[in-house]
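Structural prep section.
Before we set up the soaks we want a predicted structure of the protein with fe (ii) ion in place, mainly to decide which crystallisation condition to try first. Input record follows.
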Amino acid sequence: MSTTPRTDAAEETAVPSSDATATTQEEISAEIAEIAAQAAQATPDGQPSGARQPRIDYPPYRSSILRHPTKDPRHVDPETIERVAPCFGHRDVHPLEADLTIGAHAGTNSAVSGEPIGERITVTGRIVDGDGRPVAGQLVEIWQANAAGRYVHKNEQHPAPLDPNFTGVGRCLTDANGDYRFRTIKPGPYPWGNHRNAWRPAHIHFSLFGNAFTQRLVTQMYFPGDPLFALDPIYQAITDQKARDALVATYDHDRTVPDFSMGYRWDIVLTGSGRIWTEPEK
Ligand SMILES: [Fe+2]
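Run finished without errors. Recording the tokens verbatim:
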């Protein structure tokens, strides 16, 4: 691939400090509940004060305390950046790059060319703007943990098995209707260093490039009914329930592939009042 998907493996799986490991899930959950109660209080105009975008300084998500920006962002000239940034074209993205189930060594004549372990899923959806118009030709990249909850990343050290047949990265371009489609393995939840026994809900990271690299958006797709939602400070950093729901895919039996895979649908709204949550720039 000509681009390297950003991974959150480093920040989500950093070796926990003694302070972090001393904090219990109960203490984190109490902090989450206190902030949620504040967010639920109505403002003078009668609207909930919960924001659709995550709080960048969200104390239950421990590393956000030090990582969030404290000054206004500086504007740069996009044209200057685009002159030196990498670029891609239709010929650069092969259709097989959207299939993460074909094995990490497919086509390399490697002796290791088996299929990855796990529940095969098809993830599809439509990318639209705030007026519901499809966004065609959009570069969509994904990266994710394997079925055991393990990323292929040097900073990922928790003792779940790597899958030699699964890289966890893929990409595609949206078609004329704004539709994207991936075939992959359902990722597992994984522990991270935020507090003692902290686990992330299963998720797939998405990157959307827009028409230029300076427009890149990064977000996460979750799976319906995950019991870890209530415990996860990253998911809870978004205090508006509708905004959280927009990040959760829908099981769609029409998107299953007979005798092959389960099916999920996740549509992405890029602009307007229904815009999905995206990670802040670092
Ligand atoms: Fe992750």
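Observations: Residues 8, 12, 200, 203, 205 surround fe (ii) ion (CB under 6 Å).
Flagged for discussion at group meeting.
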